[in-house]
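Good morning C.,

I know you're traveling, so I'll keep this short. The sequence:
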Amino acid sequence: MKKVIEIIVDADGNIRMIYDDNVTPVLAEQGDLKVKRASHVEPSEEGLGWVADLSPVNGPCLSPFTRRKDALKAELEWLGSHNVPIPNGMT
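The tokens, ready to paste straight into the viewer:
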């Protein structure tokens, strides 16, 4: 199964995407690279599963998830459905 990576280029030529270890180094060779977190997937404060916190892009906290991989999947789906928003402090 092929992995699809969405790369968004704005009118000024700025690129944003969900970080990928295989692609990001290639982009870094092309010029100035700034990496900023769009979210955090962490154990819940109550210790009852996992939370995908999208507050760095003014998004929601998605929870609860029993498995971390489910929180990561929800995080990626939300970011993708919102055109990989620009994290706070990057504009």
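Safe travels,
E.
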